[in-house]
Specification:
With 335 residues, the chain is mainly β. It has four helices and 21 strands. Strands 6, 7, 8, 9, 10, 11, 12, 13 and 21 form a nine-stranded mixed beta sheet that branches.
Length: 335
């Protein structure tokens, strides 16, 4: 009950992030393959798309054409616990974020590094401050991974390895910042208004010039002209509403700066927003609703930024008290 009271209290205090002048998403293609019923992570190399399912009992990366048809499947017998996101580095390596933990019970999480030939290397990771449910991965242009947690109060934590990745590890991570996200009135997602503060995916431009986070209902695109992820998350983002996505968790950039989003569910569309990265480059350098702060100093207080809010206390009570109950049972998880 304490977190219900806290959420209601914050709902009285704050305001939502403006959507700037972002264009509406346009359909790209429809995900009709039944093997990809729980689309959770997505990346693009400009001609092909790479997609993963939520969870799974083995590593599978589906290589798609721009028509959403599967061209081939990269597989490995490694048995992940709960894969949630996907990233790709300039050398063609794919990184699967095996970091889902709804029950907050995992002693370690993992990154699965897949070579262009399909060989998987396991890198176990540990948090410095207990367990977290994490569905977003951003890789910077140097290949440093950033994990962004999923938090029901809209304050996502940002972690990265404290040193070089080892295999199998574990490598200890360090908390390097927070991202605060306010609720919006964008319709969609499985849990009502609370879904607009839950971070469900991350992405970065292939050249590192922009990064993005998404919730069930919106995308936030940040300029990163120097490739610095933490500096990018301190800038004012462009909020791009992604209305009507049944369970939106996938987000990616094309090399030209087009944003691609997708939802779980067979028959759901992939949609694009052209020029998303360029919109972020024109945004103001500070944020009043969604912001990140460096935990190491030089970027403001670790507790700075806005607070997540709901449109009304009544909605907060209804969504948190009922919607979250259903959400905790939404996924088929092991352990």
């Amino acid at each position: 009950m304490r977190w219900v009271v806290a959420f209601v209290f914050m709902a009285v205090l704050g305001g939502a992030v403006p959507a700037w002048a972002a264009p509406a998403p346009e359909p790209l293609c429809t995900m009709k393959d039944s093997r990809i019923g729980e689309l959770s992570g997505l990346v693009s190399d400009g001609s092909k798309l790479y997609a993963i399912n939520d969870g799974g009992s083995k590593v599978q990366v589906f290589v798609l054409g721009r028509d959403c048809k599967v061209q081939k499947v990269l597989t490995d017998r490694t048995d992940p616990f709960d894969v949630e996101d996907l990233a790709r580095t300039p050398d063609g390596r794919l990184w699967l974020s095996d970091t889902g933990d709804n029950q907050k019970g995992r002693l370690t999480v993992a990154l699965l590094e897949m070579s262009p030939e399909g060989k998987v290397t396991l890198h176990r990771l540990t948090y410095p401050d207990g367990q977290h449910d994490t569905e977003a991965l951003i890789m910077d242009k140097a290949g440093t991974p950033y994990l962004i947690t999923k938090d029901i109060l809209g304050e996502a934590r940002v972690y990265r390895p404290s040193g070089p990745l080892t295999s199998p590890g574990p490598t200890t991570m360090e908390k390097v910042g927070t991202v605060k996200i306010a609720t919006t009135d964008t319709q969609g997602g499985p849990v009502g208004s609370i879904g607009s503060v839950l971070v469900t995916g991350g992405a970065s431009m292939p050249d590192g010039s922009a990064v993005a986070l998404r919730t069930y209902t919106d995308a936030y695109v940040y300029a990163a002209p120097d490739g610095d992820v933490l500096a990018a998350l301190q800038r004012n983002p462009v909020r791009i509403p992604l209305p009507g996505e049944k369970q939106g968790e996938a987000i990616a950039f094309d090399p030209d700066g087009t944003l691609i989003s997708g939802s779980e569910g067979v028959g759901q569309p992939l949609r694009t927003v052209r020029g998303a990265a360029a919109l972020a480059a024109s945004a103001a350098p500070t944020s009043d609703g969604t912001s990140a702060t460096s935990a190491g100093g030089g970027g403001g207080s670790p507790d700075g930024g806005g607070v997540p809010v709901l449109p009304a206390v009544g909605i907060a009570v209804a969504v948190v008290g009922l919607g979250w109950f259903g959400f905790s049972r939404l996924r088929r998880r092991r352990g």
